[in-house]
Amino acid sequence: MIKRTVEISTKGHYLCVKDDQLILKREREQVAAIPFDDLGLLIVDSKATVYSHHALVLAAESGAVVVLCGDNHHPAALVLPTDSNTLQTKRLRAQAGVKLPRLKQMWRQIVRCKITQQASVFPPDHETRTALTALVSRVRSGDPANVEARASRLYWPALFDDKDFRRRHDRGAAPPNTLLNYGYMVLRAATARAVCGAGLHPSLGIAHHNKYNAFCLADDLMEPYRPFVDVRVRQLWRGGARELDQETKRTLLEVLTDTVTIEGNKGPLMVALHRTAASMVAVVGGEEKKLALPQS
Fold it and tell me: Are 191 and 274 in contact (CB under 8 A)?
C-alpha cells in the first residue's frame, strides 16, 4: 500500500490524536483525519503549526517520517522511527562492518545508474544524452575519477537550456534551485524512511561521510532518483513557476507516486525506495552483489 504524504504550509493548524488517527484542525474546526497506518510522510512547513507530543510519537511508531521545515522551507529536523524493523540490531552490525571494496562497488552502481537516469531525461538523439551515456562505462569502483561531477557539468546547463546555470544548495539560491531543493528534501525524507524501515542506519553512508550529516546513507541511495525531481522542476520552470507556492509544492510532492521500474517491475517511487533499501541489506549481508536501482 502506498503511504500518504501530508504537507502543511498554511498557518493555524493544530495536530492531535483521536481514535488512532492524526487529526488536523484549523481555527478549532477539524479539516482532516488520517489513520496513522496510512501515513508515510508528514511535512510541516509553517512555523505557526502546533502539535501534541502524542501525535509525533504515534507518527514515529507507525513508521512515518516527520519533516520540520524552517522559514527558508528547508528541513530543520527529521523525526525518524527508531524501532521500525525487528532485525535492526543484526543489520546495523552488518552495515557497520561492511568492507571498503564492497562500499566502492555499491557506489559505482549508484553513480552509473544516476548518470543513466540523467541521460534518459533527454531525447534519444540529444547530444547531451549521447555524451552522458558515454560516461557511464567510465565509472570505476568508488568513482575515483569523479565521473559523477563531469556528468553534472554536462547535465545541468542542458536541463534548463542555460549554459550559465549553476546548481546551488544554499539558502540564498534563486529559482529553479529553490524548487530543486524542496523536491530533494521530499525525496531525502522518503529515502530516510525507507532506510530505517529496512533496519539500516541513515548515518552510515556508502560514499557520503560528512560527520555533521546524520543522513549520509539516505543521500547515497537517493542519488539515482534525483532525475525524477529534476524532470518535474523543469516542467514547472518551463510552465512559468518561479515561486515555491502551495501549488508548486503539491506538484513536487507528487514525485513520490511517479512510476519507477526496478528489475522489470513497475511501481510508485516511494515503494521503489524501499526495494532499493532492502536490496542494500542483501548486498551488505553478502546474499547479493547488486543493488536494486531504477531502470530508464
Answer: no
> Residues 6 or more apart from 251 whose CB is under 8 A from it?
232, 236
**75 and 142 inside one domain:** no
> pTM for the complete prediction?
0.85
- Is cis: bond before 176, omega within 30 of 0? yes
The SS3 call for residue 252 is helix
Cell of 73: 522551507
Contact 175, 242 (CB under 8 A): yes
Q: For residue 188, name the pLDDT band (cuts at 50, 70, 90).
A: very high
**Alpha helices (runs of H) in 16-175, residue ranges in sequence order:** 53-61, 88-96, 100-120, 127-136, 147-159
CATH of the domain at 23: 3.100.10.20
Kindly state whether residues 53 and 92 are assigned to the same domain: no
Give the position of cell 544524452.
129
**pLDDT per residue over 56-67, tens digit each?**
999 988 888 888
27-52 burial: b if 16+ Cβ within 10 Å, else e: eeeeeeebebeebbbbbbbeeebebe
Kindly state whether residues 118 and 101 are assigned to the same domain.
yes
Contact partners, residue 249, CB within 8 Å, separation at least 6: 7, 9, 45, 182
Q: Are residues 106 and 243 in the same domain?
A: yes
- Domain limits for position 256: 88-284
